[in-house]
Amino acid sequence: MNYLKRAWLSVTRRKGKSLLLFIIIFILSNVIAGAVSIQQATQNVEKTIKNKMGATVTLRLDYENMKDGDYENIENLKMKTITAVGELPYVKYYDYVLMGNIGSSGLKSYVSSMIEDNGGMGNDEIASYYAFGLRGVQSSKLLPLEEGKITMVEGRAFTEEEVTKGKAVTLISKELADLNQLSVGDTATFTNYIVDYEKNEKKSQTDYPLEIVGIYQNKSTQKKVGKTDKSSDADRWNQAYQEQTAINQIYVPNKIVEETRREQAEANTSEVSEEELSESIGIGEPLYVLKNPEDLEKFKQEAQALLPKHYIAYASSDNYDNIAGPVKSMSKIAGYVLIAAVSASVMVITLVVLLFLRDRKHELGIYLSLGEAKVKVILQALVEVFIIALVALSLSVVSGNVLAKGLSNTLIQSQIEQQKNDNGVSYVGLDELNDSTTIDDVVEEYDVRLTPSYVVLMYVIGLGTVLVATIVPTTYIVRLNPKRIMM
């Protein structure tokens, strides 16, 4: 009789043992399926969110890994380094940005309603001297505009001449324009205040009348702050602060920012050389936009080789780990569960199959004494287990996915509750790198579902586990001596 037919008859006639093995594999497969479902869902949401965050990269100091003594030996970034990194094949275009702050005696700054309701941030006189953020540009190709992070509502972007000559022009946000009843063509007067911090008073001030050539809408401010009850206080405050910062940010040529920073440096430093003054002003923070987000890690590795000590390439999507703590934590737990479930499955199925084979010692001895090859007897045992395993795995692919969906939702909510009191520290610097994505956005994208890749992966892991668990006890068949069995 063909060994495949014998395997089928063995499974159908030994209903009790077949059912027991089915239940064991089904239960273990559900645990494996649940862990695989959660891991795939977290990988998918990470890929989706990081793509939404974009592939915008800057070069900055690695503050997290620097020691106190390292700050004394920091080498400033040089223009040739910025250019060398910008010439890497992964870069679509790049710019370097000077950042600063400025105030105004005649213009109102925007204050987020949430911050205003809670006493405000920056309502005192000294803080009002820095109410507006200066975001310098060195290229007429405005990267936030090119990447769709802002859209022009009225007017235009800068011309190459305006940027290179540092003309007194600016772009302001729509909200700021509405708040101060400004339009394209108007002149908005900003003021650079020099403050004596020891006396906590104003030393001097310089007015900067800037012509408004364009009014923009920031994409991130179109999101509603604290949009669901699931948002932690840290999330809501972070969003409110980002909203306020984005609306109060004005775009100007780098030379204007450089001038304001030079005034600050000269006023607060006595007998300083031009070289030292230039170093204190800096050359700005470089900003690179990659052609493809998937090239991010390659870009980081190659850029790192060009950077001075203590510098790193920091991407907008690097903040994902801070935002998606609950999802990342759940993925880690699922990984441990998967390893434990596979290990337990191998041990349990190995033990059960070995016991079943010992009970069938005489049956196997008869096959061997009739001249059946040991290989075919082993294949019969494998086929018997695989028939049962295929049915159990096919059912667990669906049931495990359903269980994972309910369990993961519970786990995420539990993790969010634990994170509510966390500060959610994120990178403070270029607005292009401070994405407004929150845990709400991550949870919204998180979806445990049946996908072809999940089904294939589940069968590979499940059948691979069953194969390993079955091969081990089949060594028992190899050691069988038919003569001794039949005596």
What can you see in these coordinates?
It is a single chain. With 487 residues, the chain is an alpha+beta fold. The protein folds into two domains: 208 residues, no CATH class; 184 residues, no CATH class. It is built from 19 helices and eleven strands. The strands form three sheets. Strands 2-10-1-11 form a four-stranded antiparallel β-sheet, with helices on one face. Strands 5, 6, 7 and 8 form a four-stranded mixed β-sheet that branches. Strands 3-4-9 form a three-stranded mixed β-sheet. A hairpin with a 4-residue loop joins strand 7 and strand 8. Helix 2 crosses helix 17 and helix 2 packs antiparallel against helix 18. The chain starts with a helix and ends with a helix. About 3% of the residues have low confidence.
Q: Tell me the structural class.
A: alpha+beta
Number of helices: 19
What percentage of residues falls in helices of 4 or more residues? 40-55%
Strand order of the biggest β-sheet: 2-10-1-11
User: How would you sum up the major sheet?
Assistant: 4 strands, antiparallel
From the N-terminal CA to the C-terminal CA, the straight-line distance is 24 Å
Total strand segments = 11
The helix-strand sequence is HHEHEEHHEHEHEHEEHEHHEHEHHHHHHH
Task: Tell me the radius of gyration.
Answer: 33 Å
Overall body shape: elongated
Fold blueprint:
Blueprint (H helix, E strand, L loop, with lengths): L2 H11 L1 H39 L2 E6 L17 H8 L4 E7 L1 E4 L10 H5 L7 H4 L3 E6 L5 H4 L3 E6 L4 H6 L3 E5 H6 L7 E10 L4 E18 L14 H15 L1 E5 H15 L5 H8 L3 E6 L5 H9 L6 E5 L4 H4 L1 H35 L1 H9 L4 H46 L19 H7 L6 H27 L3 H5 L1
Parallel strand pairs: 4-9, 6-8
Antiparallel strand pairs: 1-10, 1-11, 2-10, 3-4, 5-8, 7-8
Helix pairs in contact: 1-16, 2-14, 2-16, 2-17, 2-18, 10-11, 14-16, 14-18, 16-18
